[in-house]
Design a protein that fits this description.
The structure is a homodimer of 425-residue chains.
Chain A (H helix, E strand, L loop, with lengths): L1 H10 L3 E2 L5 E3 H4 L4 H6 L3 E3 L10 E5 L4 H10 L8 E10 L11 E10 L4 H18 L5 E6 H10 L7 H9 L1 H12 L6 H12 L8 H8 L3 H16 L9 E3 L13 E6 L8 E5 L3 H6 L5 E7 H10 L14 E3 L7 H13 L4 E3 L6 H10 L4 E4 L2 H5 L2 E6 L5 E5 L3 H15 L2
Parallel strand pairs in A: 1-5, 7-8, 12-13, 12-14
Antiparallel strand pairs in A: 2-4, 3-4, 5-6, 6-11, 7-9, 9-10, 10-11, 14-15, 15-16
Chain lengths: 425, 425
């Protein structure tokens, strides 16, 4: 799976990058919003300070903030438009749930240095291509814009200082439903609760068609209108790409992370609450390290989430009935152990994967072990074989056995493997 | 490089395993000796307990102890002889030095379930094959045995309770020299310091030949003699493998980790103080989790150390003068952005890696950017090309340009790439 992701990302011109598991704690704190802050794993300061309970390092919470730190630190060595992919684990002190772990892999792409909506379209195309290559056909790309959300919330009566909390509540919509969101915002009797219910009925999630027109009439202010124009351009630009027909503007998409400044997006499939991945534009994050803003846009696919859905849908090819190795070399007796290792070396040189049984147990026990491990072929070199410079080959699939000259053993074993495999198809 | 390591390990019948970055702190504490304990990165307990400075998790310090935990936890699902490889980072709160980092990759193999010296020979063969495949010819495998060390130290006048400290001092021999070791053990005037100097002149490091005979006459006791027999068997068994001729018994090899119980080994190259990797037998470690011992033996290659030496020796092939992508698609003007993305999609479908310039800058600026990025080919679709359904291709290596039909663009670009490459060889 990682091979598919990497192949698509590289074809889109993203370059590989890895960063260390931990960052200075100040690099991470204050970048993810209040909820995110709480979920950061902190590492105790080492040495004499250990007793103070002070933390100076923290495990990365995502791959975006470490990237922003790298960009800020190496800005002079990087091209003006820098595109990188990164496939590494991140850590969150979250309650584990279905397809949710405290350690999980993110597969990120980010394009740094341009505010052009072409970047969003290109990024969306790349992730759509990954999903298509993995066999997904029914996913949707939910698309929204932070500044459009701001305009909508203002118009709906939410003062600016209430927006972060409101977005966090709306972000949980797919898990807790409209009632849950209303509850989180103070309930039916509160002004915010009522505003949220009205808002979500005005802009019901997942409709797509016409939602941008409706938003255009609903909101006031130039920023919101510019955001609508930006989203329309992204949809239009994506029409020639792998993202064509997949994008659904959705005013209920909020995204939890606080660093987004423009378009935000998320991938939804019908059979998973939560998303397979998400991303957006974050034009101010690098500036938090550099003191000078550098525009950026990225997307993160969640590896375990995707695997979870693929498993549920039986999208992986059925297990090939193959053992851990091609051949197990048996041990005839203690004095022949060195020769068994030599034989294994010879066979490995022909490209076979070979395990040597470690003990001089009875051959029957060794065969039983090989069968239990689903190893297809074993070799036996007893006194007779040794005297004739031969190797006895036993095919555990067909139960056939025959002796071959030792020099030919590798080639013969490979031949049997090939015919075993074609027989099983 | 990781590809080579993985390929060899799999050919030896080791199966891949990954474990989480952190373990419960109790899993790691007390397994590495005093020095190791101090270098473990500890993670603050989350939630309301955070204020107490309590740590409940810790970043793995190596891959061996997590493996032992996995073995103990899943013993009923695992085969009797379990062989796994694992290539993942570990973390140590060490002072960074040449080729030494706080986060670094280990490439481990371990064979669980057998006490046979065949296992040591097979493991040594695998790591020798990795190094040979990477181009190393001059490495040596230093071999010693914990119980032989015990017998030697006893005979030299070190009481048992002084052994851990003595081994830690001797382990630093290649970094601090004989004088340094003597100093660490109390100096020339102390009994231990004098014993250490005598011992290291009796068993000078790196001689190999005859050292086992000398040890045999030096020590008393059956355990030590059995250890010598074990080492002789390992050397003999390795004779038919990739480790043949590489093994040097060396009584000054101590290994820092406290969990070893039998043979210990380390890979040395002349131009690096410290080792490229090391390992040994640890028959009691799984038992610390399970309450029942399961024998085991493993080896760990240090990825960054190996890369460091390969870099110093210029063992990597010279940088191929290849850009990050095969093709950069330029943007003629704003209205043609969607078409540029479509063209990129078409070209990527033919297997090319393609970057789209994100802005409608002047073509000259776009060409300059591509040249600076070492991109070999660019495409231009102006009004004329568009009207004729053509794409102009510019070869930035040869400065040649010509227009081709859009349907052929992918194939033509691939053709030029191929001839560019053969021209540069």
């Amino acid at each position: 799976m990682i091979g598919v992701v990497r192949d698509v990302y590289e074809r889109y011109g993203f370059e590989p990058l890895e960063t260390p598991a931990f960052e200075n704690i100040d690099t991470l704190l204050g970048k993810y919003g209040e909820e995110g802050n709480k979920l950061i794993f902190k590492i105790l300061r080492r040495g004499e300070h250990e007793g103070t309970g002070d933390a100076d390092l923290a495990l990365r919470y995502d791959l975006t903030v470490p990237l922003a730190r790298v960009i800020a630190q190496h800005q002079n060595e990087l091209p003006r438009f820098f595109r990188r992919y990164q496939i590494q684990p991140v850590w969150r002190a979250d309650r584990p749930a279905k397809g949710r772990f405290r350690e999980f892999y993110q597969c990120d792409i980010d394009a740094i240095g341009s505010t052009s909506p072409l970047v969003e379209a290109d990024v969306l195309s790349a992730v759509c291509e990954v999903l298509a290559r993995l066999g997904f056909a029914d996913f949707r790309l939910r698309l929204n814009h932070r500044q459009l959300l701001t305009a909508i919330l203002r118009k709906a009566g939410f003062p600016d200082e209430s927006h972060p909390k409101t977005l966090v509540a709306v972000d949980k919509l797919d898990k807790i439903g409209v009632d849950g969101v209303v509850q989180e915002l103070g309930g039916e009797t509160s002004g915010f609760g009522q505003a949220a219910r009205l808002l979500l009925s005005e802009f019901p999630p997942g409709r797509g068609e016409g939602v941008l027109d409706r938003a255009e009439h609903f909101i006031d202010g130039d920023d919101g209108q510019a955001a609508i124009g930006n989203l329309r351009t992204i949809v239009q630009l994506a029409n020639g790409t792998a993202a064509a027909g997949k994008i659904v503007p959705d005013m209920s998409l909020a995204r939890g992370l606080s660093y987004y400044t423009g378009a935000i997006m998320e991938i939804a499939v019908p059979d998973l609450a939560g998303s397979l991945g998400g991303g957006g534009r974050y034009d101010n994050l690098v500036g938090m390290f550099l003191g000078r803003d550098i525009p950026a846009c990225g997307f993160s696919l969640g590896l375990e989430r995707i695997i979870f859905v693929m498993n549920e849908r039986h999208m992986f090819p059925p297990d090939v009935t193959r053992g851990a190795v091609d051949v197990m070399v048996t041990i005839w007796n203690e004095p022949s152990r060195q020769d068994a290792l030599s034989l294994a070396s010879e066979l490995r040189r022909t490209g076979l994967s070979v395990e040597v049984y470690p003990e001089a147990h009875k051959i029957g026990a060794q065969l039983k072990y090989a069968a239990g491990r689903n190893v297809p072929l074993i070799t036996i070199v007893g006194e007779d074989e040794r005297a004739r410079d031969e190797v006895k080959i036993k095919n555990l699939r067909t139960r056939e056995e025959h002796s071959v000259s030792r020099a030919d053993a590798g080639a013969r074993l490979r031949g049997i493997l090939a015919s075993n495999e074609s027989a099983s198809h």
